[in-house]
Amino acid sequence: MRSFCLLISLFSIFTISSHGLNILAILPLSMKSHYAIGNSIVKNLLNAGHNVTSITMFEPEQPINNYRVIHIPDTMNVSGWGDMNPLDYNDIPILLSVVMMPMMGADMINEIMKSEELNEFLERQDENFDVCILEIFTSEALLGIVEKYNCVLIQYTTFDAFIWIDKMTGNESPPSYVPHPFLEYTDNMSFVQRFYNKFFVLIDDFFYNFLHIPWQKFLYRKYFPNAKRTFDEMYRNSSIIFINNHVSHSFPRPHHQTQIEIGGIHVKPAKTFAKRFSRFSRFSNGWCNSIFNGFLYRWH
Ligand SMILES: *[C@@H]1O[C@H](CO)[C@@H](O)[C@H](O)[C@H]1NC(C)=O
Ligand SMILES: *[C@@H]1O[C@H](CO)[C@@H](O)[C@H](O)[C@H]1NC(C)=O
Ligand SMILES: *[C@@H]1O[C@H](CO)[C@@H](O)[C@H](O)[C@H]1NC(C)=O
Ligand SMILES: *[C@@H]1O[C@H](CO)[C@@H](O)[C@H](O)[C@H]1NC(C)=O
Prior knowledge:
Elements lengths: L1 H14 L6 E5 L5 H16 L3 E6 L10 E5 L22 H19 L3 H8 L7 E5 L7 H7 L2 E6 L5 H7 L21 H33 L7 H5 L2 E6 L15 E3 L13 H9 L17
Parallel strand pairs: 1-2, 1-4, 2-3, 4-5, 5-6, 6-7
Helix pairs in contact: 3-7
Bound molecules: 2-acetamido-2-deoxy-beta-D-glucopyranose (4 copies).
């Protein structure tokens, strides 16, 4: 009986054939903080045995099997945005940022679509993808790439759900207790904070509806004139939206069932201290070893 079971098991092992998926990941942003999330999704898919083609400006640290990169230019360096130190973004008046975003987005799409490597790739007729992944960050016009492959669409964001995602899925972020991610409020807002939050959401909504989306629609038609499906059809085609949030470090808020929290996906397992640190640690009388949770505390 045992040998019969063994035979059956061996037979099953040799007859099971696993079929990986062919996945296209569009990681348009050339900021490391955005790439960290997209790249972590890609790495997980590669580890699960799928083939991944990424459209990105970043090279993998080392060559990876079943991974291919279609290069696009550094989009941070267009219309002078790139010369700005990322730390200076905090100095931009917050109301100006809702106008700047659509402009940055349009510049980014124009720059990406200039890439010869990408255009050659898009002209090839022998490419097929089962799943396409696209970051939502002023990048809606790139849904035209997804349209070409007739694949299941998965999108992700480096934020929590907010207006860009709500509009796609019909989700709600009530401004009475869901702070806009650009404002540093909690769910416990004073009357004045709530008032400003609502006001800011209205302004954001206005520029999103009357500047950002019409502009992205225009770019979709410009770069993908042969698309069979319209922008609006593609805009609502996401099957899943990964959001960079986790219930353990945010406030209670509504999420549509297609929104899946993946906050922390980019966190790697902790490593032990490097040698020079352990020497420093001895020198420092061992206090370094008592650091909790990977943080360096500073005290006066
Ligand atoms: C994945 O890539 C390998 C090697 O390039 C290829 O043999 C295989 O057919 C690909 N799988 C799919 C699902 O396209
Ligand atoms: C941005 O592009 C200009 C030329 O277009 C180049 O001179 C400059 O070095 C670039 N800056 C960065 C940060 O890449
Ligand atoms: C909300 O904030 C107010 C004022 O800061 C405070 O008195 C109150 O306890 C807070 N409520 C909760 C539930 O944290
Ligand atoms: C996306 O579009 C395709 C083709 O129009 C359709 O078959 C599919 O059901 C749509 N998916 C979603 C989630 O709307």
